[in-house]
Amino acid sequence: MIEIIAISGSLRAASTNSALLAALAANAPDDCSVQVYDGLGRLPIFNPDDEGERTPPEAARLIEMITRADGVIVSCPEYAHGVPGGMKNALDWLVSRDAAVGKPAMLVHASPRSLYARAALAEIMRTMSFAMYEETLEIALLGKKLGEVEAILAENANRQAMRDAVQGFARFIRANIASSS
Ligand SMILES: Cc1cc2nc3c(=O)[nH]c(=O)nc-3n(C[C@H](O)[C@H](O)[C@H](O)COP(=O)(O)O)c2cc1C
Asked: Is the dihedral of CA 17, 166, 126, 122 positive or negative?
């Protein structure tokens, strides 16, 4: 079983990025489990003085989840041509540890427009030594209301695309495990 943690960069209750990740989890192939991380809004602002024994519980939970996972999927909005603070903050808690090093990661997109954030996120995660999977999945949900979002994510073609995307990422993870053992 391949175990994947999915992180949405949006805290909005009606977030399209969170909806995309929930749908990815629901449509994952049988040999993959996708668990959506729910603690982004509870993470204290990163402070290097609070590492080691002073690591706050929610940050320790995130670090532990990423350490144990076989891979990470991120879906993140763009704010002012950048990565939202909450998402960057979560990543900052992982910088000076082993959790991200060599960890397979995939970006998926709920907006066709978030080109600056995509590039920034890829650069940040590469710098942190995540093993970035080059394929991505984009399902355009920008500006859609919750009902419309659900309808789009329930379309057969999109369900298949989500299954294929997770399957492709799982293959990348397995190849990564094989080459590092
Ligand atoms: C404060 C703020 C700034 C934004 N800046 C941008 C931007 O620079 N570029 C862009 O494409 N969209 C921008 N957007 C739109 C969001 O990226 C877009 O609504 C996204 O789909 C929201 O994701 P969510 O539904 O998961 O919350 C911004 C939205 C907010 C709230």
From this structure: negative
- Residue list, ligand 1 pocket, CB within 6 Å: 10, 12, 15-17, 77-81, 110-111, 113-114, 142
What superfamily in CATH does domain 2-174 come from?
Flavodoxin domain (3.40.50.360)
At a CB cut-off of 8 Å and minimum separation 6, what does 45 contact? 89
Report the chain (181 residues): mean pLDDT per 10 consecutive residues. 98 97 97 97 97 95 98 98 98 95 98 97 98 98 96 98 98 91 74
Ligand 1 centroid–CA 82 distance in Å is: 10
CA–CA separation, 154 vs 173, rounded Å? 26
Ligand 1 centroid, distance to 14 Cα (angstroms): 13
Rounded distance from Cα 144 to ligand 1 centre (Å): 12
Residue-range domain boundaries for the chain: 2-174
- Strands 104-109 and 137-138 come out as parallel
Helix axes 146-154, 16-26, angle to 10 degrees: 30
- Measured in angstroms, how far is the CA atom of residue 55 from the centroid of ligand 1? 31
Which residue is associated with the tokens 């540890």?
Answer: 97
Report the alpha-carbon distance of residue 41 to residue 172 in Å, rounded. 30
